[in-house]
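Quick one, tokens below:
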């Protein structure tokens, strides 16, 4: 299995995060869930960059929650793994709720989740019939989530948001490590494998 930094997602969240500064004010406002008109008003003081990044990461949490549920509903997991997977899904739900609350406090409109059927099509979960393949996909999603939170850090000057991102990153990396161990995959031999 590839190291965390080299795992490729269906689209690059890091590319999105690094490219966010090149978007127009109107585009950024829309991605943040604020109308361009309201965004220009003096009473909107939350940094738009934070809202854009938080909404993108919220989309990652929605995807993770749905993927764990799809596999749990599909009876792909053995009993002991299913229990662990649902614990991890619970962590993602807590992350989602924290992100939604944070986005709302900053004046944004949280991005909505797709349906589980839409995520199933996006991730082609119908082709996954074994626990090993399901855990391999979940491992990649956990890497993507960890890297998204790490990628958020340079884009915020808000210390509380940085602290939140760091704490959630620790959860994502813990999920990844447990899944890697379950798959009996080797861990990276080099340091600083995440967020590169």
């Amino acid at each position: 299995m590839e190291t965390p930094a080299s795992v490729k997602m269906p689209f690059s969240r890091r590319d999105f995060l690094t490219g966010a500064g090149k978007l127009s004010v109107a585009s950024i406002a829309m991605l943040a869930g604020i109308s361009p008109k309201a965004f220009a008003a003096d009473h909107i003081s939350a940094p738009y960059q934070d809202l854009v990044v938080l909404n993108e990461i919220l989309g990652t949490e929605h995807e993770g929650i749905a993927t764990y549920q799809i596999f749990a509903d599909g009876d792909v997991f053995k009993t002991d793994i299913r229990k662990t997977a649902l614990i991890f899904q619970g962590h993602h739900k807590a992350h989602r709720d924290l992100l939604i609350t944070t986005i709302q406090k900053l004046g944004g409109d949280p991005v909505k989740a797709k349906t589980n059927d839409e995520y199933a099509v996006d991730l082609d979960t119908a082709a996954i019939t074994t626990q090993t393949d399901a855990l391999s996909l979940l491992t990649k999603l956990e890497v993507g989530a960890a890297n998204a939170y790490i990628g958020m850090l340079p884009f915020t000057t808000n210390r509380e948001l940085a602290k939140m991102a760091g704490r959630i990153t620790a959860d994502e990396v813990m999920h990844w490590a447990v899944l890697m161990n379950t798959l009996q995959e080797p861990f990276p031999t080099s340091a600083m494998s995440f967020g590169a």
